[in-house]
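Hey, can you fold this one?
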Amino acid sequence: MESCALSFEEFKLSVVPAFRGVFRDVDPFGTPFQDAAPERAILYPVGYLPDEEQLSAIAASASAIGDSGFYAAGTEHEFIWRELLEDPTELDEPPHMPTEFLALGPQLARQAWAALNRTSSRPVYDDDPAWWIAVDDLGSGWPSIYSGGARETALISRSGQWGLLTSHQSHAVVGGTLQFVETLLTRFPSAAGMAERGADGEWREPEAALPAAQVLVFLREVRHWQEPMTWLPAHLAHIYGEDRAQVLLRAAGFIE
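Sure. Predicted structure:
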Protein backbone atom coordinates (compact mmCIF):
# COMPACT_ATOMS: atom_id res chain seq x y z
CA MET A 1 0.00 0.00 0.00
CA GLU A 2 1.48 3.32 -1.10
CA SER A 3 1.62 6.37 1.15
CA CYS A 4 -1.69 8.20 1.17
CA ALA A 5 -3.95 10.48 3.17
CA LEU A 6 -6.65 8.65 5.12
CA SER A 7 -10.34 9.51 5.16
CA PHE A 8 -11.95 10.34 8.49
CA GLU A 9 -13.62 6.94 8.45
CA GLU A 10 -10.26 5.23 7.89
CA PHE A 11 -8.78 7.36 10.67
CA LYS A 12 -11.41 6.18 13.16
CA LEU A 13 -11.31 2.57 11.98
CA SER A 14 -7.53 2.11 11.77
CA VAL A 15 -5.51 4.95 13.31
CA VAL A 16 -7.50 5.48 16.51
CA PRO A 17 -7.32 1.84 17.73
CA ALA A 18 -3.65 1.62 16.71
CA PHE A 19 -2.93 4.80 18.68
CA ARG A 20 -4.78 3.56 21.75
CA GLY A 21 -2.87 0.29 21.64
CA VAL A 22 0.40 2.17 22.23
CA PHE A 23 -0.60 5.49 23.82
CA ARG A 24 -2.90 6.60 26.61
CA ASP A 25 -2.23 10.34 26.15
CA VAL A 26 -0.99 12.77 23.53
CA ASP A 27 1.21 14.79 25.90
CA PRO A 28 4.92 14.23 25.13
CA PHE A 29 5.80 15.84 28.49
CA GLY A 30 3.58 13.52 30.53
CA THR A 31 3.02 9.78 30.81
CA PRO A 32 1.80 8.94 27.31
CA PHE A 33 2.53 5.23 26.91
CA GLN A 34 0.42 2.19 27.61
CA ASP A 35 1.95 -0.74 29.50
CA ALA A 36 1.97 -2.53 26.12
CA ALA A 37 4.90 -0.25 25.15
CA PRO A 38 7.35 -1.26 27.90
CA GLU A 39 10.66 -0.08 26.36
CA ARG A 40 10.91 3.72 26.14
CA ALA A 41 13.38 6.48 25.40
CA ILE A 42 13.76 10.22 24.85
CA LEU A 43 15.22 11.38 21.54
CA TYR A 44 16.75 14.84 21.08
CA PRO A 45 16.78 16.98 19.05
CA VAL A 46 13.79 16.06 16.89
CA GLY A 47 11.56 18.50 15.01
CA TYR A 48 7.82 18.28 14.58
CA LEU A 49 8.72 15.76 11.88
CA PRO A 50 11.90 13.65 12.07
CA ASP A 51 14.45 14.71 9.48
CA GLU A 52 15.67 12.51 6.65
CA GLU A 53 18.40 10.74 8.65
CA GLN A 54 16.14 10.21 11.66
CA LEU A 55 13.31 9.02 9.44
CA SER A 56 15.65 6.52 7.80
CA ALA A 57 16.42 5.07 11.24
CA ILE A 58 12.71 4.83 12.08
CA ALA A 59 11.92 3.18 8.75
CA ALA A 60 14.75 0.66 9.11
CA SER A 61 13.67 -0.18 12.66
CA ALA A 62 10.07 -0.64 11.54
CA SER A 63 11.16 -2.92 8.71
CA ALA A 64 13.27 -4.95 11.14
CA ILE A 65 10.14 -5.96 13.08
CA GLY A 66 8.05 -6.60 9.97
CA ASP A 67 6.15 -3.30 9.66
CA SER A 68 5.61 -2.18 6.06
CA GLY A 69 4.77 1.35 7.22
CA PHE A 70 3.19 3.43 9.95
CA TYR A 71 0.48 6.00 10.58
CA ALA A 72 1.28 9.70 11.01
CA ALA A 73 -1.24 11.95 12.73
CA GLY A 74 -0.99 15.51 14.00
CA THR A 75 -2.04 15.95 17.62
CA GLU A 76 -2.59 19.73 17.71
CA HIS A 77 -6.32 20.25 17.38
CA GLU A 78 -8.78 19.39 20.14
CA PHE A 79 -11.07 17.63 17.70
CA ILE A 80 -8.23 15.28 16.67
CA TRP A 81 -6.77 14.48 20.08
CA ARG A 82 -10.21 13.89 21.57
CA GLU A 83 -10.80 11.33 18.84
CA LEU A 84 -7.44 9.70 19.55
CA LEU A 85 -7.91 9.43 23.32
CA GLU A 86 -10.02 6.67 24.77
CA ASP A 87 -11.01 8.75 27.82
CA PRO A 88 -10.13 12.41 27.19
CA THR A 89 -12.17 13.91 30.04
CA GLU A 90 -9.12 14.39 32.29
CA LEU A 91 -7.10 16.33 29.70
CA ASP A 92 -7.94 20.02 30.05
CA GLU A 93 -5.94 21.53 27.24
CA PRO A 94 -4.57 20.68 23.81
CA PRO A 95 -0.87 19.78 23.87
CA HIS A 96 0.38 21.94 21.01
CA MET A 97 0.92 25.66 20.64
CA PRO A 98 2.55 28.10 18.20
CA THR A 99 6.08 29.49 18.47
CA GLU A 100 5.18 32.59 20.49
CA PHE A 101 4.07 30.40 23.39
CA LEU A 102 7.27 28.37 23.63
CA ALA A 103 9.10 30.73 25.99
CA LEU A 104 6.55 29.90 28.67
CA GLY A 105 7.69 26.28 28.92
CA PRO A 106 5.48 23.22 28.41
CA GLN A 107 3.15 23.58 31.42
CA LEU A 108 2.38 27.30 31.21
CA ALA A 109 2.28 27.27 27.42
CA ARG A 110 -0.35 24.54 27.30
CA GLN A 111 -2.50 26.39 29.85
CA ALA A 112 -2.33 29.64 27.89
CA TRP A 113 -2.88 27.98 24.53
CA ALA A 114 -5.88 26.04 25.82
CA ALA A 115 -7.96 29.19 26.15
CA LEU A 116 -7.31 30.10 22.51
CA ASN A 117 -7.73 26.74 20.82
CA ARG A 118 -11.19 25.30 21.28
CA THR A 119 -12.54 23.65 18.16
CA SER A 120 -14.72 20.66 17.46
CA SER A 121 -15.45 20.99 13.76
CA ARG A 122 -15.06 18.11 11.33
CA PRO A 123 -13.25 20.32 8.74
CA VAL A 124 -10.22 20.31 11.06
CA TYR A 125 -9.60 16.70 10.08
CA ASP A 126 -10.31 17.23 6.41
CA ASP A 127 -7.72 20.04 6.30
CA ASP A 128 -5.06 18.05 8.17
CA PRO A 129 -5.72 14.31 7.80
CA ALA A 130 -3.79 11.37 9.18
CA TRP A 131 -1.62 9.46 6.74
CA TRP A 132 -0.41 5.97 6.00
CA ILE A 133 3.33 6.21 5.33
CA ALA A 134 4.82 3.25 3.47
CA VAL A 135 8.42 2.37 4.33
CA ASP A 136 9.12 1.75 0.64
CA ASP A 137 8.32 5.42 -0.06
CA LEU A 138 10.95 6.76 2.36
CA GLY A 139 14.08 6.31 0.27
CA SER A 140 14.79 10.06 0.23
CA GLY A 141 12.82 11.41 3.17
CA TRP A 142 9.11 12.02 3.53
CA PRO A 143 7.01 11.37 0.40
CA SER A 144 6.57 14.58 -1.58
CA ILE A 145 2.78 14.19 -1.40
CA TYR A 146 2.79 14.08 2.41
CA SER A 147 1.14 17.22 3.80
CA GLY A 148 2.20 16.83 7.47
CA GLY A 149 4.09 19.78 8.83
CA ALA A 150 4.59 22.15 11.72
CA ARG A 151 2.72 20.52 14.58
CA GLU A 152 3.30 17.88 17.19
CA THR A 153 2.94 14.51 15.49
CA ALA A 154 2.33 10.91 16.46
CA LEU A 155 3.92 8.12 14.43
CA ILE A 156 2.07 4.88 15.13
CA SER A 157 2.82 1.27 14.29
CA ARG A 158 -0.11 -0.45 12.59
CA SER A 159 1.00 -3.70 14.23
CA GLY A 160 0.98 -2.09 17.69
CA GLN A 161 4.70 -2.63 18.29
CA TRP A 162 5.78 1.00 18.72
CA GLY A 163 4.82 4.66 18.71
CA LEU A 164 6.60 8.02 18.73
CA LEU A 165 5.42 11.49 19.79
CA THR A 166 7.20 14.71 18.83
CA SER A 167 7.01 17.87 20.94
CA HIS A 168 7.19 21.62 20.50
CA GLN A 169 10.42 21.64 22.54
CA SER A 170 12.35 19.58 19.98
CA HIS A 171 12.30 16.28 21.80
CA ALA A 172 10.47 13.06 21.03
CA VAL A 173 9.43 10.11 23.15
CA VAL A 174 9.39 6.63 21.69
CA GLY A 175 7.92 3.48 23.21
CA GLY A 176 7.37 -0.07 22.06
CA THR A 177 8.89 -3.50 22.02
CA LEU A 178 12.47 -4.06 23.14
CA GLN A 179 13.52 -5.06 19.64
CA PHE A 180 12.13 -1.94 18.00
CA VAL A 181 13.45 0.57 20.54
CA GLU A 182 16.89 -1.02 20.79
CA THR A 183 17.17 -1.11 17.00
CA LEU A 184 16.10 2.52 16.76
CA LEU A 185 18.58 3.71 19.39
CA THR A 186 21.36 1.88 17.58
CA ARG A 187 20.48 3.53 14.26
CA PHE A 188 19.27 6.95 15.41
CA PRO A 189 21.75 9.79 14.72
CA SER A 190 23.54 11.16 17.77
CA ALA A 191 22.65 14.63 18.99
CA ALA A 192 25.00 17.41 17.98
CA GLY A 193 26.97 18.61 20.97
CA MET A 194 26.34 15.42 22.96
CA ALA A 195 27.80 15.79 26.42
CA GLU A 196 28.13 13.83 29.62
CA ARG A 197 28.55 15.07 33.18
CA GLY A 198 31.81 14.03 34.82
CA ALA A 199 32.50 13.20 38.46
CA ASP A 200 33.50 16.82 39.11
CA GLY A 201 30.11 18.02 37.85
CA GLU A 202 31.41 19.45 34.58
CA TRP A 203 29.91 18.61 31.19
CA ARG A 204 32.30 16.96 28.74
CA GLU A 205 32.00 16.10 25.07
CA PRO A 206 32.74 12.36 24.60
CA GLU A 207 34.58 11.13 21.52
CA ALA A 208 31.68 8.85 20.53
CA ALA A 209 28.20 9.86 21.68
CA LEU A 210 25.70 7.07 22.26
CA PRO A 211 22.20 7.73 20.90
CA ALA A 212 20.65 6.45 24.14
CA ALA A 213 22.38 9.30 26.02
CA GLN A 214 20.49 12.00 24.12
CA VAL A 215 18.28 12.41 27.18
CA LEU A 216 21.24 14.07 28.96
CA VAL A 217 21.44 16.70 26.24
CA PHE A 218 17.70 17.25 26.51
CA LEU A 219 17.94 17.67 30.28
CA ARG A 220 20.78 20.14 29.88
CA GLU A 221 18.50 22.25 27.67
CA VAL A 222 15.55 21.86 30.04
CA ARG A 223 17.54 23.51 32.81
CA HIS A 224 17.34 26.79 30.87
CA TRP A 225 13.53 26.85 30.85
CA GLN A 226 12.07 29.48 33.13
CA GLU A 227 9.36 27.41 34.80
CA PRO A 228 8.92 24.98 37.69
CA MET A 229 9.91 21.50 36.58
CA THR A 230 7.08 19.74 38.42
CA TRP A 231 6.33 17.60 35.36
CA LEU A 232 9.90 16.34 34.85
CA PRO A 233 10.35 13.66 37.58
CA ALA A 234 7.13 11.83 36.66
CA HIS A 235 7.95 12.12 32.95
CA LEU A 236 11.42 10.62 33.37
CA ALA A 237 10.11 7.89 35.68
CA HIS A 238 7.49 6.97 33.08
CA ILE A 239 10.11 6.73 30.34
CA TYR A 240 13.06 5.22 32.23
CA GLY A 241 11.73 3.91 35.56
CA GLU A 242 12.09 5.46 39.01
CA ASP A 243 15.67 4.41 39.67
CA ARG A 244 17.11 5.57 36.36
CA ALA A 245 15.05 8.77 36.53
CA GLN A 246 16.77 9.66 39.80
CA VAL A 247 20.16 8.96 38.26
CA LEU A 248 19.35 11.20 35.29
CA LEU A 249 18.01 14.02 37.46
CA ARG A 250 21.16 13.88 39.56
CA ALA A 251 23.45 13.72 36.53
CA ALA A 252 21.76 16.79 35.03
CA GLY A 253 21.99 18.74 38.28
CA PHE A 254 18.30 18.85 39.19
CA ILE A 255 18.88 17.11 42.51
CA GLU A 256 21.89 16.64 44.77
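Residues 89-96, 192-199, 201-212 have pLDDT under 50 and may be disordered. Let me know if you want another pass with a different chain boundary.
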